[in-house]
Structures are given as structure tokens and as C-alpha cells.
Amino acid sequence: MMSRFFQSDGVYYFLRTPSAIVAAIIVVIIVGGAIFAPWIAQSNPYDLASFSLMDGLLPPVWQGGDPRFLLGTDNQGRDMVSSILYGARLSLFIGFMSMAIATVLGVGLGLAAGYYGGRFDAIVMRIADVQLALPAILTALLIDGISRGLLPPSVQQDLRVVVLIIAIALSLWVNFARTARASVFVERNKDYVQAAMIMGQRPSRVMLRHILPNIMGPLLVIMTVDLASAILLEATLSFLGIGLPADSPSLGTLIRIGMQFQLSGEWWILWVPTIVLAALVVSINILGDFLRDIFNPRLR
Amino acid sequence: MLTVENLTVQFPGRFGTFTAIEDVSLTIERGEIHGLVGESGAGKSTIGAAIIGLLQPPGFVSNGSIHLGDTDLLILGDDEAHQTRGKRISMIFQDPQTSLNPLMTIEDQLIETIQTHEDISTEDARSRAISLLEETGIENASQRIKAYPHQFSGGMRQRVVIALALCTNPELIIADEPTTALDVAVQSQVLDLIRGLANTRGIGFLLITHDIGVIAQTCQNVTVLRGGQVMEHGPTQQVLNAPEHPYTQSLMAAVPRLDVKLDRFLVPDTEEGVETAPIGRSAEDAERWLRSGDEMLGQGLSMEGVTVKFTGARDSLFRKPEVFVALDDVSMTIRPGTVMGLVGESGSGKSTMAKVLTGLVQPTAGTLKLNDSTLPLARQRGRKDPSRRVIQMVFQDPYSSLNSRHRIGDILAEPLWLYGLENDRAKRRDLAAAMLDLVGLSADAINRYPHQFSGGQRQRIAVARSLLARPRVLICDEPTSALDVSIQAQVLNLLKDLQARFSLTILFISHNLAVVRQMSDDITVLKSGKVVEAGPSEAFFNDPQADYSQELLSLTPNYVGQKGVASQTLVTEV
């Protein structure tokens, strides 16, 4: 089983694409660091007892900072490395969750729209068009506003993450729906689908068992690319203050906090999280491009 | 004029170097049409690409030489090669739909090509373009030249492509399957045109095709390829009628004959040998299981006054969309346990008939009958309707009719599970393996995926799948037109055997009259959605009644008993 994996085309071309290897290493480091943050970070930025104001605003080690803080500290004395690990943890969690919800919603609707066509298709696709016309920020503001109006203030803080995930998922599902629908239009007329229909198989079975596995290629590519968009969207929303509050910082929130120090000499508070975010998003996109090439042999 | 000597083309790849062409030599004289024939993967197109210098990377010529006149084509630099390619060698591709730019008028494309290679004014180029179109048989050329490619029919478009190839007055034209996408009537016109050009202009043609009939009709000399090597070459008549090489002999024997019905095809000895290494279960188990079905008697299938209308796209809110009549009051009766051949050109409604019978298309009017009881039309036919099992279909393209993400075992078990024929999972697997043996495949195929099989093997798998529903009626929509002749012979033999052993009723749809003659008891000829002629097959082939049938029969290329066409061309050799 393993040997078959290592001989597959994917692995073969991966080992011959330096950009994909570098991107994969960066993603593995950041994602791994985020997952294991509680065990490898030296302090917990959410825990007031684990850091001290006395260590505030220390520069990175190569600029003469304290060797305990590799990338320096912020004004509260929090270790930048730890903040980034925990921030990336939140960013990635939100990104993955919203991408997953968008995938299920979008692929489900796209499959059904492409399979049934006609009126159902028209309705779903017009909703998708309307959704595309609304900027993600507006959707997030809308859901944020509704949740503030409906929910008691005590729950609101806890649900900020959920609100963000729903808002981002709602602005991303259209990509999945459109791609799935277009692919279904192609697959639906292929003989193996016709054969399944002639046999009298249930539509749900035709869609999920026959069509879905055959359109996974393009969908996987969109999933990676949209994961990057979801992370960026979350950062944007948090940067604008609609997302996560300062006491549970994601990468976007860290960047917003860092903005205040940009002109006063403490550049690392802004730039370190920014570079991490950029590296993560670029790497995921490069991997997405690589996947697209793998699934489309003609581009090779 | 063109001399290819000891040409070897290699493709370095991940699993070692693949030699596509090995030690091929051929010569083409002025005005000669040289046929290059072989099955898929034989390297026909690669030779054409090597001559014109368009080998797909990483392919390269590793040995040999190609001379056009005195020019050595292989040592030319990029610029010179580009010049030669346009000016002295032209190419005609298979599909006229894609070899013309749909966004440019014919005029623009012709003038552009002429001016690229010659420094003449647009006016002169236009008058040259018009005369070229006239030469290729396009009437009213000065008007038609303003049109876009989609405003021409398929055959007309191929004429335009030929005119485009003539723009630079080339010495050699490489025609890669130029008529494969065309109907017989149009095919014979295009071949006439090619013959005419070779005679009048003295252009040498390299005609690449898999169709022996086309070779017989047009070529003076022929080269037979297999696996990148020349099997036999020589004058067409000699190679086709008295082949010397065993491969050529078996290839000729596998070509369906139009003039006489044979019981079985002679199957050439190919690499795709029929594997028989059954694991435990064998063909007898499958046969016993098939016979244990309750209704072994043949079932008849008939349609009465079926009309199918498709509504086009609505282009205005206030006007009704145009209606296209695909089938017009069609009636047909297939007797129980016989094979009905359904022939017609593309667009005549053959596939629509299959779709009406299988319940994919809702007819506007008409009734269907399965063994004297009414067969519900598409929308009325429920998912659980018994006819869903009794009527099974075999599709044209074995590459798309099997779900490429499923294992063969799962594909075959599906009908057993769906129709509740066998509820035990392990027994379903056993039966699938046994059925593979029945259709001539190794039973261990159940753990593999469709892409691991060749076209012919996949078509066998598709037949096995339809048999596992224990059907009484098979609808075969061009089941062999995507296959090579030798593989076609094997699959047709298989269908014949199964039909005889299990007294299946078969609707056999094909555009190839010779294949239909070999397969069917009765025949129905369809033209533009109407039945032109129907009756017993042998009577039809010996004495066709309708004008259209006679025309169709006379246009179908036939390599034996050819009515002097090939010899005629031989006489006019330059």
C-alpha cells in the first residue's frame, strides 16, 4: 500500500517540483506548530500569569533582544512566537471549518443543480449570483449584527468564532457550487451515468456514488485555494475589528494590534505575523496550483 | 519526392524510453496517394508528426532521415523548418470542427495563411482564396468566403480545411484520418477531391487512416504498420487482396465484409489474447446462473408511431422556441430472439431511438411494447419497473461507459445488488468473476480499475455488466465503432455467441453497413428521423428498394469486390 503511494504520479511529480516542496515544508511547519501550540509554545498568550509586563517590547534576538524571546515580545510582554503559534491555530481552525462547511453546502447544491437542471438549477444559481454580489465583509457584518440582536451578550463572545465561520463559509460556497455544477453537466451525459440512470438507480446514489468521485479533482483544487481565501478573509475581518477580539488573537488580530507600533520602532510586532500569514497563504496557493497541474495532465 | 529512411522516434519517459516508431522507411512520389494503415497505437500519426516536425515533446527522432526533394528536413533550423512546414508540406486533420478558428471568417483565415508565406496584396490573396475554394468544390465561393466555419456543414468544412492546406501550393499533404468524422456520402466526396488534387496538381498525399475501405478507394500504395514497425508495404491491390505478412492477412480477414454474411469473424492474433485463468468460478457457473432465470424465452420489442420532438433554446420571451423533430412517426418490430440492425447517418435519430427504448427520452407520441405488454414511456417508467432489468444497454465508448473510479468487481456487482438478484455479497463477487470468464477475461480482473484495460477488454466488461442483469433485450449503440478492426471482430463474435446461446433480442445500432450485415437478421434504415426501409437483412443487402438505401450501399467503401475504384486510380497514376 505504502509503496504504491510512493510510486504514484503525484509523488513523482511532487519530488520534481521544487516550489511545491518548499511550499509543503512551510505549510507543514506552520500547521504543525499551530496544532501542537499548547505543547511547544513557551507561554500561553491567553494566560495572564504566563507572561510579564516587565518583558514588554523586547526586539528579536538578532537585534539585541532577550534570548528567551526569539522574535521579541509585544507591549504586554507576550512572546511573539507563542502568539503567532496560537494565532495561526485559530486562523487555521476557522479557515478549515469554513472551507469544510462551504464544501458540503456548495458541492451538495451544485451536484443537485447540475443533475436536476431546470428550475431548481435556476433558483440555486441565482441565489449564488446574489451571494457573489455581496462582499464577504458585508455578509459577516450582517450575520454579526443578527447574532448580536438575537443572542444574549454572555453568549456572544463565545460565539464570535462560529459567526466568523458561518460568514466566511457563506461567501465561499458559490465557488464550489459553480464548479460542481459545471462538472456535473459534463459527467451527466457520459455513458456510465446514463447506464446508472437506465438501470433505475436512485438519483442520490447516482450523484454521490457515480458522479461525485469523478468530479473530485477540480473540487480538491478549489478546496486548497479556498482554504487560503478563508484564512485571508478571516484575517481581513479580524483586522477590521469585525472578527476576533484582542484577547483571543488570530493572525489578523495580531496584525491589527501591530499596526499601532509600526511607526514607533517596534516593527516586529506588525511584520512577524504579517510575514507568517503571507507565507502560509502563498504556500497553500502554490500547493493548490500543483494539485491542479496533477489533475490536468495536459498542463504538464 | 518524399523519402523517409530508417526513421526511429523515441519518447523518453518515467518508465524508460518508449520507441514509438522503429526503422520505418517509405517513399512518396509526385501525385501519389500513399496510405498508412494500422490499428490505434501503431504509430501512424507519429510518422506524420515527425515528417512535418510537430512531434510532441519529449519525443525525438533518434535515427533515420527524412528528405523532401533535396532538402533534409531533420537538419533544418527552427526558422527554416517553420518555412518548409508551411510552404512545402501541409496537414489536414481529422476533425474539421476544431481545425478551423471559429471566430474568424473563412476569408480571413485563407488570406492570413497566403500572406504569411507570400508577399502579395490582400486583393490578390483574396482572389487566390476564392479560386482555391472553387477548386475544392465550394459553390458560390465569392459569397461563401465571408462566412464563419460554423455556417458550413461538416463535409464543406473539410473542403475549406483542404483549401487552407492548398494555400501555399504544397508538394506534400499529410492527411491524418481526414474522413473519419464524416458520414459515408460526404466521405466519398472528400476522397474524390483528394484523388482529383493528386492528379491535377501532382501533390503527394500521405493518407493516415484505420479504415481499409478508404485505403482501397484512394491509395496507390499502402504501408501497414503495427507497433511502430512496417509489417508490409506495396501496391494497394496487392497488399489488400493478396497480403503476404500473416498480420496483414489476419487484419484483412477481420474487416467486416459488405458483400457476404459470415458466421464468425476470423480473429487475428493480437497481444490482446483472450485470457483464461479463472479463479474458482468459471464460465459454466455464469451460464448456469443466466439460464436459471425464469423467463428464458426470447422477448420481442416494438415501437409504434413514435415521434420525438426536442425544443431548442428559447431566444425570445415572446416567441416559441424552434422545434426539432428527431423521430417522426417511427415504427419498428424486433422479433423475439433476433438481431435488428439499425443504420443511418449521423443525426438520423438512431441514438434517440435507443434512448426512447431505454427510457432516457420522453417521446411526444407513440407507444412501446415489450412482449405484447405495454412498455411505459420514459416519465411513466418507474425506477422499479421490471423492464429496467429486462432491457440493458451496451454503449459506444467503453472509455466512458464504465465509472473510472470503481473497481471492476463493484461495477459488475451493481446490477446484481440493484435488482435484488443476489443478496449475498460474496456470491455477487463470485458471479462477477464467473461472468468475466464467460466474456473471455481473467477472473482476477475484479480487483482492477477500468483504466488498466484496453478498449476491447472494457467493452467485454460492459457486456458482462449488462448480462449480470439477466436481460432479455440488449440495446447496442455502436458497440464497436470506437474499437480497432481486430478487436471489433472479437467483440462482435462475443455478441453473436451470447445472442445464440441465450436467445437474446438485440437492437444493433451502427453506421457501418458491413458490420450490420454480419450481425443482423432484420434491418431498419433511418434517415432524418424517418424509416426509409425495413425488412430482412439479406434481402436488403442483395436488393435494396429505397433510393436512399441504394445510395448508402454504393457509397460504402468495400475492399473486396471493389467496383473498380481502386484500379481506376491505379490507371491514372502520374
TrEMBL record, chain A:
Matching PROSITE patterns: ABC_TM1
GO BP terms in the entry: transmembrane transport
ABC transmembrane type-1 domain ranges (all copies): 88-288
A GO cellular component annotation in the UniProt record: plasma membrane
Keyword vocabulary terms for this entry: Cell membrane, Membrane, Transmembrane, Transmembrane helix, Transport
Membrane topology: Multi-pass membrane protein
UniProt similarity note: Belongs to the binding-protein-dependent transport system permease family.
UniProt protein name: Peptide/nickel transport system permease protein
TrEMBL record, chain B:
Gene Ontology, cellular component aspect: plasma membrane
Main location: membrane
Signal peptide start-end: none
Localisation per UniProt entry: Cell inner membrane
Ranges for domain ABC transporter: 2-252, 308-553
Pfam annotation, one family: oligo_HPY
GO biological process, one term: transmembrane transport
SUPFAM superfamilies: P-loop containing nucleoside triphosphate hydrolases (SSF52540)
Domain of life: Bacteria
Keywords noted in UniProt: ATP-binding, Nucleotide-binding, Transport
One annotated GO molecular function: ATP binding
Topology within the bilayer: Peripheral membrane protein
Family annotation (SMART domains): AAA
Family (UniProt): Belongs to the ABC transporter superfamily.
Name of the protein in question: Peptide/nickel transport system ATP-binding protein
